[in-house]
């Protein structure tokens, strides 16, 4: 497929477009918007070479068997965890014990944050990458030349817990959610440690996880009038050990598997987990930090 570069579009293509785009949601809701700014376009080759995998190919880890299964069941799950980290760098976790109500509530509160008026969200903008609360758009606006179709909220939730004070209920729900996710991550890391032939507590002790940072990120990918020209998030790996993800039912996540991009479906009441850079380093490259990206569509998510 030949790569094409989008030409700059006339300014009158973007009704009500602000001089500086601080929110993709605001831009996407502009009356009469039919195309995206030239600053947010990418060549179509980024969308090529996507393959489908048979249903059920992505590994599934039954967390309840890892935590409370029989010795035989637990041994099998530990083996499956190792294979998932080595072959995919990505797996789905079911039977994790987090109530569906809590998962729905955290998605609702995050949506409530993105639905705030722009001046309210600007209170939590942040100015530095290490600020404990940051919200904004794109990926790294200080260095990018083309921008991404994404709004985000990023907060540190451990060692010290932070949260925006708006909308109502976000503090309480995000605190409970973050604590439950931390428990699951440490349980998975126990199994991963054993899958490497180490003691279950090895990763926890070696990296002093009790003092390790935990970051909560909410991403919004609004409706895009030209999804074939936009990107939600560029191909990247995650810096940490593990990333646990929940989705709202609208697909868009892709992972790189055996040199090709693979669509990852959505699964109710489950976590999608991917391995990060620190785990690749700790395992001496045995478990790879998987590349992934977010595509956008005309529905938004």
Automatic annotation (TrEMBL):
The keyword Oxidoreductase applies. Residues 211-301 form the Fe2OG dioxygenase domain. Pfam families: 2OG-FeII_Oxy, DIOX_N. SUPFAM superfamilies: Clavaminate synthase-like (SSF51197). It comes from the Eukaryota. Keywords: Iron, Metal-binding, Oxidoreductase, Vitamin C. GO terms for molecular function: L-ascorbic acid binding; metal ion binding; oxidoreductase activity. PANTHER family: OXOGLUTARATE/IRON-DEPENDENT DIOXYGENASE (PTHR47991). Belongs to the iron/ascorbate-dependent oxidoreductase family. This is Fe2OG dioxygenase domain-containing protein. The lineage of its organism: Eukaryota, Viridiplantae, Streptophyta, Embryophyta, Tracheophyta.
């Amino acid at each position: 497929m030949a790569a094409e570069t989008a030409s700059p579009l006339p300014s009158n293509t973007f009704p009500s477009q602000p001089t500086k785009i601080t929110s993709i949601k605001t831009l996407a809701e502009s009356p009469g918007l039919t195309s995206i700014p030239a600053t947010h376009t990418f060549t179509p080759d980024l969308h090529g070479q996507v393959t489908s995998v048979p249903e059920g190919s992505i590994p599934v880890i039954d967390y309840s068997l890892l935590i409370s299964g029989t010795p035989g069941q637990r041994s099998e799950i530990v083996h499956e965890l190792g294979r998932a980290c080595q072959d995919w760098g990505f797996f789905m976790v079911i039977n994790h014990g987090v109530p569906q109500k809590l998962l729905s509530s955290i998605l609702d509160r995050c949506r409530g944050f993105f639905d705030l008026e722009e001046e309210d969200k600007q209170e939590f903008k942040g100015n530095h990458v290490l600020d404990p609360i940051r919200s904004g758009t794109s990926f790294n606006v200080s260095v990018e030349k083309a921008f991404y179709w994404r709004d985000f909220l990023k907060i540190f939730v451990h060692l010290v817990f932070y949260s925006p004070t708006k909308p109502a209920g976000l503090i309480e729900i995000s605190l409970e959610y973050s604590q439950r996710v931390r428990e699951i991550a440490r349980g998975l890391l126990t199994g991963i440690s054993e899958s490497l032939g180490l003691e279950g507590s090895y990763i926890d002790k070696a990296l002093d996880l009790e003092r390790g940072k935990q970051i909560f990120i909410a991403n919004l990918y609004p409706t895009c009038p030209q999804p074939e020209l936009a990107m939600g998030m560029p191909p990247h790996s995650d810096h940490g050990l593990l990333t646990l993800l929940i989705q709202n039912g609208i697909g868009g996540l892709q992972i790189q598997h055996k040199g090709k991009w693979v669509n990852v479906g959505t699964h109710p009441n489950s976590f999608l987990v991917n391995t990060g850079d620190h785990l690749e380093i700790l395992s001496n490259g045995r478990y790879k930090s998987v590349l992934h990206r977010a595509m956008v569509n005309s529905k938004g998510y």
